[in-house]
Amino acid sequence: MSLIYGVLWAFLGQLFSFMQMQGGIKYGWYDKYPIILILSSIPSTWFYMKSVQHLVDAFNGELWPSRLIGFGVGIIVFVTLSIILFKEPLTAKTLVCLLLASTILGIQIFWK
C-alpha cells in the first residue's frame, strides 16, 4: 500500500510543480501572482516528502527506488500536461523518453 501512496503523492507533487512553473508561462501567473506561486511550493514540497516517505517504506529503507520512481512519474506527468495544455506534439524523441521513463518505473516497481 505504501507503494501506491508513494506514487500518488509523487503524482500530486509533479502536478503542482508543473502548474507552478510551466503554468506560469502559459497563464502569465508570474507577473500576476508571484507570492501565490512562491507559496504553492509549500504543498508541493509536502507532497514530495510524503511520496519519499512512502516509497522508502515500500522498498525497505532504500532511497534509490523513490528517486527513480519520482523521476519516472515526473516525465509521464510532464509529457501528458505538455500535450494537453501546450498542444506540444508527441515527437519520436518524446516517445522514446516516455518509454524509458516507463521502463524505469517498471524496473523499480516489479524487479525484486
What would you note in describing this structure?
This protein has 112 residues and is mainly α. The chain has one domain (2-110). The protein is 86% helix and 0% strand. It has six helices and no strands. The protein has helices at residues 2-27, 29-32, 34-39, 41-58, 64-86, 92-110. The two termini are 16 Å apart.
Beta-strand content: under 5%
Rg over C-alpha atoms, rounded to the nearest angstrom: 15 Å
> What is the overall silhouette?
flat
Number of strands: 0
Work out the helicity level.
over 70%
Elements, N to C (H/E): HHHHHH
The chain-level structural class is mainly alpha
Mean pLDDT across all residues, rounded? 93
- Count of helical regions: 6
Main sheet characteristics: none
Q: Low-confidence parts, pLDDT < 50 over ≥5 residues?
A: none
Estimate nothing, just give the exact number of structural domains.
1
